[in-house]
Amino acid sequence: MEVGQKYSFEINGDHPNPYFIVCKIDKDHGKEIISISIAGLKFINPHSETGFGHAISHAPVELKALSNSPIKLVGENEQLPDYEEGYSTWREAFESGQGGYFTISPDKIVEYIVSSILQ
Fold first, then answer.
1. What angle do CA 33, 36, 37 make, to 5 degrees?
2. 77 neighbors 2 (Cβ within 8 angstroms)
3. Cβ of 49: how many Cβ atoms within 10 Å?
4. Strands (DSSP E) along 40-77, which ranges?
5. Chain-centroid distance, C-alpha 18
6. Residue 64 pLDDT
7. Residue 49, pLDDT above cutoff 90
8. Which of 14-18, 22-26, 87-91, 106-110 bottoms out in mean pLDDT, i.e. has the lowest?
């Protein structure tokens, strides 16, 4: 897995073209943590002006979770989306012992984040 790679994945729901782009790779505590940006989505987001969300700008995921997921490489050297703010917030929390990372597949990450938004 390399920065700039684009992967598609399957997910339940009416998401038009779900994919993620690898934005950064960190090696911490013996783990490779991949920062991904997920797009090609459509979900209800009451915090959005339109009422819908289409992307998740940053999600940190253990490499093993992605390696064990049914994903398909569909692009390389993609332009990186705007993930830096989310990454910086996560990194600060992670370094202070307050932030974690996902150990589940991209579809489950989307389901988790969307359900959190709706609570």
1. 160
2. no
3. 6
4. 43-44, 52-53, 56-62, 71-75
5. 11
6. 93
7. no
8. 14-18
User: Which residue, chain included where needed, has tokens 């990186």?
Assistant: 80
* Half-sphere exposure at residue 15, Cβ-oriented, CA atoms within 13 angstroms: 23
Q: What's the CA dihedral at 108, 113, 9, 74 to 10 degrees?
A: -140
Rounded average pLDDT over 32-54: 88
- Of 17, 44, 49, give the one whose Cα is nearest residue 114: 44
Q: What is the dihedral of CA 35, 111, 53, 78, to 10 degrees?
A: 30
Residue 30's pLDDT is what?
83
User: Are the beta carbons of 4 and 36 closer than 8 angstroms?
Assistant: no
What token pair was written down for 76? 């390389």
Q: What would the two tokens of residue 53 be?
A: 């969300």
